[in-house]
Amino acid sequence: MNKAVLALEDGFFLEGQALGAAGEAGGEVVFNTSMSGYQEILTDPSYAGQIVTMTYPLIGNYGVNDEDVESCRIWAQGFVVKEASALYSNWRAKTGLDEYLKKHNIVGIQAVDTRCLTRHIRLQGAMRGVISTLEPDKKRLINKARAVPSLVGLDLVKDVTCGKDYDWDIPYGSKARALKVVAMDYGIKRNILRILSGLGCSIKVVSARAKAEEILGLKPDGLFLSNGPADPAAVLYTVREIRKLFGKLPIFGICLGHQLLALALGARTYKLKFGHHGANHPVMNLETRKVEITAQNHGFCVDMDSMPDRSVKPTHINLYDKTSEGLRHTKMPLFSVQYHPEASPGPHDSSYLFNEFIDLMKKYAKKKRY
Description:
Blueprint: E1 3-8, E2 13-20, E3 24-32, H1 38-42, E4 50-54, E5 58-59, E6 78-80, E7 83-84, H2 97-103, E8 107-110, H3 114-124, E9 127-132, H4 138-147, H5 157-160, E10 166-168, E11 179-185, H6 190-198, E12 201-207, H7 212-217, E13 222-225, H8 236-244, E14 251-254, H9 256-264, E15 268-285, E16 291-303, E17 312-318, E18 324-329, E19 334-337, H10 352-364
Parallel strand pairs: 3-4, 4-6, 5-7, 6-8, 11-12, 11-13, 13-14, 14-19
Antiparallel strand pairs: 1-2, 1-9, 2-8, 3-9, 10-12, 15-16, 15-17, 17-18, 18-19
């Protein structure tokens, strides 16, 4: 097999075997603790600008299918695994991981010590890196890693949002479409749309550049703020529009949507040392004191201590580091969570959040203020 190398900006260097396409890829190197779900991870737009390291040692054994993608393409910049299975076995599989990465021109590396890499990131923090099958020189690769743009202050939403508004017209379940939801596409995952559809919503997906007046003109019953990549503080153009919609209709945000909602409420966000990425993160619901096993994918977090609005209360916290995982406004119909209830790792610990959104929309359906 062809050789490949991974270099980080601080000089950390690993040699391994090429996986996927030949070439070079740069991005922020993060680790994901999920044991499965690599196809969903690769196609999650929230990973734009990042090289994903899987901590589970064997990846690719059930192949890749056409149904489980979360978007139209792979958004991760690169892929790092200990061992990529050369064989795959699943009745739904259409191809293998290596072929899938090659098809989408994604550069990867395998046969490296992912435990060592993960420990290094945990201790030193997520940092920029480069995977290359072309350049063997260590110093040149380290310099290339240092030239990769930092995610701090970087707006990648503009790259992943839809080019034009569209209706989600793939029915999921048999319920009548009684509620109309406008979904802000900051990098929205398809399973969010599937779940809302299955709960009886017709969905209009709109660009991250959509204005408040345009959204209200669609006369929705509720507004959904989606997940997405990079720094929420770099997407202030949508924060201004979200603020204009307060009190006009119910709002539910997930991941980046949670961060943007908090910014619109006047709080600040900050970058985590190495982020939260995986399908096994415990979160406590502060309202019920129950613990949910959640899927996580974020490198930034809301500073709840900076929240100026006393009507906003925290609803969830991460039990690993006590960081913010949710908020709710006590006077306006809006709430959000940092984690991903649509990913169902519990498997359904957090599905109640979508039902809460449905109930909130039904409650305010007769009180529309636009």
